[in-house]
Amino acid sequence: MAKFTFVGGIHPYDGKELSKDKPIKDILPGHELVYPLSQHIGAPAKAIVEKGERVLMGQKIAESGGFVSSPVYASVSGTVKAIEPRRVVTGDMVMSIVVENDELYEDVGFFPMAPENKLSKEDILEIIREAGIVGMGGAGFPTHVKLSPKEPENIDYVIANCAECEPYLTSDYRRMLEEPEKLIGGLKLILRLFDNAQGILAVEDNKPDCIALLKKLTKNENRISVKALKTKYPQGAERQLIYATTGRKINSNMLPADVGCVVNNVDTVVAVYRAVTEGRPLMERIITVTGDAVKEPRNFRVKIGTSYQDLAEAAGGFQTEPQKVICGGPMMGFAMFGLDVPTTKTSTALLAFTRDEVSAMEPGPCINCGRCLEVCPGRVMPSKLADYAERFDEEAFLSNNGMECCECGCCSYVCPAKRPLTQQIKSMRKIQLAKKKKK
């Protein structure tokens, strides 16, 4: 079996055995759901409901705030309790719609707009926009914008990112096993937007059952192929995935469309399928709850707006008090200060560990071993960039390609001196991106 990959990367312990063999479980939320109006890149959505108003499941409660924006839908029926700032996983206070769940789950009724084969490209894009679909791998870029490049005829590849290279995460794996038809159906719908494109299902080879199943289901699909990728982190990062599957390269100043590619996460592709064929807006997603502190690790189908506390309780709670709780994967996720915050469209995982290994590390001086350079998929010099960032030498940072870092964390992982290389580089990149945006 051919295995496609990129230069650099690491092989951390993946921890996937904790949850990968358990079927997805549906859970119901608690009495209160919180819907932040900024669950995506771009302008915040604008509330179109008022305090005291009753809403139904599937009802639009906030409309797009611009072209690069996305509407928000109620995932339960109930009463709007408040429209006020609420804290989110990053610690920020974000204007949110708070709905008191009446536990009746009355919906607005979901119907496809028209037979699928009679929909035009414009119809499909409008359905995707109106459904509030964004990149569900964590980035949160509105999907209708990504699927509307300036020159759609120049798109050669539509890549479904099925790699799931982050340790511990298994939601995409379970989705591929349990609902492969929706994944393939969603990819076929996206391919209808690009007349000259081929579809690629890119799966790491540590999922041989998924590869075999997807190949079987696409054997008669002339425009779709399944590519087995070498298991290595960060194989699922956009730049690395595009290079591994097509041999094309992009940098920080380019978009995938600049090299004829469009990349979408598994959950995003499935959301496209459900919006077009079922008329269902984005109201739920699959989230992995795992880690050695979790009693019953598994994947849950979660209504967006559910609190992380409800998620932890659905997994049986903690068998021991965790020292570290992470939103997302252990490599690119971030530590959480508490669980009383809402899940959003971009929530991927809740990890809880008995030991906080990172905080126990004592950083030392660089020994010039070069390990960070060997594993860096961006082919930059992490140790030097971290030095420049620490000294706030912006000119040196930029001239040494600091913006090409993808913040994957490989350098920090292998550093024998335990230096927080990624964190230092990330801080400088944030400053530079803010300056660029201001200009």
Concise synopsis of the structure shown:
The protein is an alpha/beta fold and 439 residues long.
Helix/strand-derived class? alpha/beta
Span of the ends, CA to CA: 48 Å
Q: Please, what is the oligomeric state?
A: single chain
The dominant shape is globular
What is the helix fraction of residues, given as a range? 25-40%
Ranges where pLDDT stays below 50 over 5 or more residues in a row are none
Give a short account of the largest sheet.
6 strands, mixed
In CATH, the homologous superfamily of the domain at 16-20 and 112-278 goes by the name NADH-ubiquinone oxidoreductase 51kDa subunit
Write down the secondary-structure element order: EEEEEEEEHHEHHEHEHEHEEHEEEHHHHH
| Number of DSSP strand runs | 17
Number of helices: 13
Compute the gyration radius: what is it?
21 Å
CATH overall fold name of the domain at 16-20 and 112-278: Rossmann fold
Explain the overall architecture:
This protein is α/β, with parallel strands linked by helices and 439 residues long. Among the domains are: 16-20 and 112-278, NADH-ubiquinone oxidoreductase 51kDa subunit (Rossmann fold, 3-Layer(aba) Sandwich), CATH 3.40.50.11540; 371-438, no CATH class. 26% of the residues lie in helices and 19% in strands. The chain has 13 helices and 17 strands. The protein has helices at residues 121-130, 143-146, 171-178, 180-191, 208-217, 238-246, 266-278, 308-314, 371-375, 382-390, 394-399, 410-414, 421-438, and strands spanning 25-26, 32-36, 46-47, 54-55, 60-63, 72-73, 78-87, 93-101, 157-162, 198-204, 224-229, 261-265, 284-290, 298-303, 324-327, 334-335, 349-353. Strands 1-14-13-17-15-16 form a six-stranded mixed β-sheet, sandwiched between helices. It has a four-stranded antiparallel β-sheet with strand order 2-8-7-4, with no helix packed on it. The protein has a four-stranded parallel β-sheet with strand order 11-10-9-12, with helices on both faces. α4 (180-191) crosses α7 (266-278) and α10 crosses α13 (421-438). It is globular and about 65 Å long. The mean pLDDT is 95.
